[in-house]
Fold this protein.
Amino acid sequence: MHANETRLRALWQGLERGQEAAVRQQARAWRASGTAPPALDLLLAALALAEARPGEAAALYGGLAGGEWDAPARVGRATALSRLGDAAGAEQVLAELVARSPGQFLAQLHWAELLEARGEHAAAAARYYAAVVQAQRQGRWLDAATTAPGLRARVTHAMARIEEGRRTLFLELLAPLRQRHGRDALARVERGLMIYLGELPAQYATPQQRPTFFYVPGVPAAPYPSRTLFPWLEQLEQATDGIREEMQATRARAEAYAPFLGAAAEALPPGLIAGDGTRPAWDAYFFYRHGVRDESHARECPLTAAALERTPLVRIREHAPEICFSVLAPGTHILPHRGVTNTRLTVHLPLVVPGQCALRAGGELHEWQEGRVLVFDDSFEHEAWNRSTESRTILLMDTWNPHLDLPEREAIEHLVAGIGDFNRAVALP
């Protein structure tokens, strides 16, 4: 270790042991010698805070802002400003740092504390949540061993405020619906919310079914629900020829298609798609993406757009529906995975299906037939492959789980949108 680093570490250890006087004397002498690194000012600032000299600390931290030690300097400066009674100034410093670097979990934590101190409990809960998520993504605050001793009480407090704040916020989203429809009508969704919040265990109908986001208990489950539950399937199937013709016209414009998973296969993390000796590709021509309709694609495919609007689509602000022509390139394998929720089901209208193409859901194999709609529950583990030498193309969409009543669907719409708002407010994907 470099001599300066060794010397600095010794001074920090002395400060942590409460040896302020000795540390002050040594640090000031080192600084006066002209040989001290800029990082020494971080220690002098922390020393000034420990000795109740916040004005001096703020000045020292301010001198480090914008340099190599910008992030810790800004967090420290916010602490000094808080002790000087300038909470607004402290928040501004922290907000600017977090906007530029959301991973600064100590800044998120301090900001949350300031929000709570002035009574903004909902905003504080959201900011505490951001702090904990960002810290845990970096391997911190997972348990006592990964939490610095000086932070443990603050992190424990943050965890409690998160639990209380999120629970209150999400239950408040359901309050108008509870008043309108009665508590019994929303009982399953509220149990699902408690599972989401970690207050109830998830008791899945089968080990194969484990949605990654939101699970509503008590909903009948099957990998391939009976077609009799979907009286609109026949009308969609009758439109197959027109939809296929419009799809084939779009295939002439490669730029109209985008990777379904948001990036080409080589840029994706492992475990999503694989190739059988070829470059895998899963591309999509979207009619809806994250609930937003692509008007140009709807105009280019009017028969398809009209058929879609006749189906009972899931509509959740900024989340659903997700509808596209889904193209699986030759040799591509979508590896086993589970979907996000059992509240909606996945619908496939097969348009072009060469041989050696299949889907497996919940351990049951299904081979697509052109023009024959398939509905499956993607909260079951599932995978799909194209082992042929031609592309496989389907119209892919989602629809409500028919076992959910209308009040439950409305509750899901409110909850999922609200959870999305909460996560977006703290800059979480």
Q: What stands out?
A: The two ends are 38 Å apart (CA to CA).
